[in-house]
Amino acid sequence: MPTDPPTPDEIQQRTAAAEALGKSGDARGAAHAYDQLGKLIQQRCGRFDPRAIDAYEAMSRWVAFPRLPPLTRSAAPVSEGCFLRYGNQAKSPGHTAGPPSLN
């Protein structure tokens, strides 16, 4: 088994493969692929290598939000009917105080 650090190309290829698995509907496969990547980086580069931490964060996003597209997994989706924020107070869309509705 090689002990050289994974190259940036190898990490990028494994990341692309994990994302492709997730986008195809296999969130568990994506999480597993990121887990394996994190273990590989830790084994070759050390326990606290930032790239390993990135791989584990990506794994946790696939576990936490398996059905959301990649750009919205890290942020709450916005839809009509949710509360709009004006300053630090949350108000419903039909609330009369605050800025006028742009609808």
Continuous helix count: 3
Name of the top-level CATH class of the domain at 8-64:
Mainly Alpha
Percent of residues in beta strands?
5-15%
Rg calculated over all Cα atoms: 20 Å
Uncertain stretches of 5 or more adjacent residues: 72-92
| Mean of all residue-level pLDDT scores | 75
Strand order of the largest sheet: 1-2
What does this structure look like?
By secondary structure, this protein is mainly α. Helices cover 49% and strands 6% of the residues. The chain has a domain at 8-64: Serine Threonine Protein Phosphatase 5, Tetratricopeptide repeat (Alpha Horseshoe), CATH 1.25.40. It has 3 helices and 2 strands. The protein has a two-stranded antiparallel sheet. Strand 1 and strand 2 form a beta hairpin. Helix 1 (8-23) packs antiparallel against helix 2 (27-45) and helix 2 (27-45) runs antiparallel to helix 3.
